[in-house]
């Protein structure tokens, strides 16, 4: 109950991904990475991949919980449920939250590798991707990783600008890394993310983000 009250007080937050989030996350992945095949098995990533951690950005839904449809067992009921899921952002949104984006990290022995950051198409350019990046950097530092790495399309100037803002440096190129168009990827590294100096800088960037986009919360602990 206390966690639910906090979620209502802060409309936007980042928290660990749960199994119930997967349908919404899968839709976001299809929007952001339509050529990815096979699609990510988020059940495997959450339950069996010991080096994987996934976080989701969620937003409180300003409407009451939808009652169950009375004709669920019929073909018409299933059709209406599907329409409702599309309009409301997924069945889980009826429980008070819509997943607006996600970030995935793999955590081998001495580093954190960001494998994906994606935001729901209708809610891009609202600071959600930056919020997810902040959470990923906090998570890496909290788990004792000093080095954070990722790949980024060489043509993705907005993302490159964001990563540069947070201190990432280009250290290499992976030729023809993306299978859809054979585009190269920059390899970007951020060193010292767990140092007091960088954590101080991260707090400054978070405050700037709040001033522009409003209050939000990052919670790295899995709720029970």
Description:
The protein has a single domain, classed as Aminopeptidase, CATH 3.40.630.30. α5 packs antiparallel against α7. The protein has an 8-stranded mixed beta sheet. The longest helix has 18 residues. It is built from 7 helices and 8 strands; from the N terminus they run αβααβαββαβαββαβ. With 224 residues, it is α+β, with helices and mostly antiparallel strands.
Fold blueprint:
Layout: H1 2-9, E1 12-16, H2 22-32, H3 42-47, E2 52-60, H4 75-88, E3 97-106, E4 111-119, H5 128-142, E5 147-153, H6 157-165, E6 169-174, E7 185-191, H7 196-213, E8 216-218
Parallel strand pairs: 1-8, 4-5
Antiparallel strand pairs: 1-2, 2-3, 3-4, 5-7, 6-7
Helix pairs in contact: 5-7
Please, how many helices? 7
Question: What is the strand tally?
Answer: 8
Principal-axes shape call: globular
Arithmetic mean of pLDDT: 87
CATH superfamily: Gcn5-related N-acetyltransferase (GNAT)
Q: What spatial order of strands do you see in the largest sheet?
A: 6-7-5-4-3-2-1-8
**What is the number of independent domains?**
1
Can you identify the CATH class? Alpha Beta
CATH topology: Aminopeptidase
Distance between the termini: 11 Å
Q: Which percent bin holds the helix content?
A: 25-40%
What portion of residues belong to β-strands? Answer: 25-35%
**What's the gyration radius in Å?**
18 Å
How can the largest sheet be summarized?
8 strands, mixed
Oligomer: single chain
């Amino acid at each position: 109950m206390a966690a639910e009250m906090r979620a209502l007080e802060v409309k936007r937050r980042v928290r660990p991904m749960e199994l119930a989030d997967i349908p919404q996350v899968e839709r976001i992945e299809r929007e952001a990475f339509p050529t990815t095949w096979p699609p990510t098995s988020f059940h495997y990533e959450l339950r069996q991949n010991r080096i994987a951690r996934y976080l989701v950005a969620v937003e409180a839904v300003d409407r009451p919980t939808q009652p169950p449809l009375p004709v669920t067992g019929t073909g018409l009921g299933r059709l209406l449920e599907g329409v409702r899921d599309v309009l409301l952002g997924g069945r889980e949104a009826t429980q008070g939250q819509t997943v607006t984006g996600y970030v995935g990290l793999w955590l081998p022995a001495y580093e954190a590798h960001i494998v994906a950051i994606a935001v729901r198409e209708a809610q891009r350019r609202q600071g959600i991707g930056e919020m997810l990046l902040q959470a990923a950097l906090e998570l890496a530092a909290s788990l004792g990783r000093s080095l954070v790495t990722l790949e980024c399309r060489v043509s993705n100037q907005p993302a490159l600008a964001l990563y540069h803002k947070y201190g990432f440096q280009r250290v290499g190129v992976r030729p023809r890394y993306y299978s859809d168009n054979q585009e190269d990827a920059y390899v970007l590294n951020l060193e010292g993310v767990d140092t007091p100096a960088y954590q101080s800088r991260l707090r400054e960037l978070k405050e700037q983000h709040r001033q522009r986009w409003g209050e939000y919360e990052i919670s790295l602990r899995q709720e029970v």
